[in-house]
């Protein structure tokens, strides 16, 4: 059985005066009803327990704003409980919406569109053309280094060439590729 509205109002007045014993008694008399209101809104027992504690913290801070001539103690207390629970629901929904929007944005950023694929295809074609402009020795050394993932020493061993020779071929090949891939001239200059 719940406490009479008059005793809840008196306890709220005691809490407004800063009496911790008044808050303890208010808590004991109203916890089950406050928790029930919060649980009906949230439907999650753990979240309802946490939110109920927040309700009593808010009551402690705002008890001075209670006006017994405008509402009953129960009405004021349960209105705070309901409002706090609704705020939690809204906050959780907003958080889920932000997470969903972020996931969609991330997905759009990761998944290439048709224009990205067109650009990538053109770049691949250009690299192939530039690779064909290299000497056979440079091209083979670069393919072994970048596509096969071999070290300079491994390439030298595979080719039966001196390490310094392999490094020179790679360096010269990279320079030639860079020159080939750089834009030719500036538009409108």
TrEMBL record:
* Alphabetized UniProt keyword annotations: Sigma factor, Transcription, Transcription regulation
Domain of life of the source? Bacteria
User: Where are its TM segments located?
Assistant: none
**RNA polymerase sigma-70 region domain segment(s):** 29-93
Q: Which ranges carry the RNA polymerase sigma factor 70 region 4 type domain?
A: 125-177
- What InterPro entries does the database record attribute to this sequence? RNA_pol_sigma-70-like, RNA_pol_sigma-70_dom, RNA_pol_sigma70_r2, RNA_pol_sigma70_r4_t2, RNA_pol_sigma_r2, RNA_pol_sigma_r3/r4-like, WH-like_DNA-bd_sf
**What family does this belong to?**
Belongs to the sigma-70 factor family. ECF subfamily.
Q: Tell me what this protein is called.
A: Sigma-70 family RNA polymerase sigma factor
Q: Which organism is it from?
A: Dermacoccus abyssi
């Amino acid at each position: 059985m719940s406490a009479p509205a008059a005793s809840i109002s008196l306890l709220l007045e005691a809490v407004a005066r800063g009496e911790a014993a008044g808050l303890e008694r208010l808590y004991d008399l109203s916890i089950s009803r406050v928790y029930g209101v919060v649980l009906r809104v949230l439907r999650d027992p753990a979240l309802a327990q946490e939110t109920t504690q927040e309700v009593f913290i808010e009551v402690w801070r705002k008890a001075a704003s209670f006006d017994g001539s405008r509402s009953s103690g129960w009405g004021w207390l349960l209105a705070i409980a309901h409002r706090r629970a609704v705020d939690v629901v809204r906050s959780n929904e907003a958080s889920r919406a932000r997470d969903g929007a972020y996931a969609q944005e991330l997905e759009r950023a990761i998944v290439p569109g048709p224009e990205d694929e067109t650009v990538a295809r053109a770049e691949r074609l250009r690299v192939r053309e530039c690779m064909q402009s290299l000497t056979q020795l440079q091209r083979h050394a670069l393919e072994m280094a970048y596509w096969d993932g071999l070290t300079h020493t491994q390439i030298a061993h595979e080719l039966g060439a001196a390490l310094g020779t392999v490094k020179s071929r790679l360096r010269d090949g990279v320079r030639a590729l860079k020159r080939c891939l750089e834009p030719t001239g500036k538009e409108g200059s």
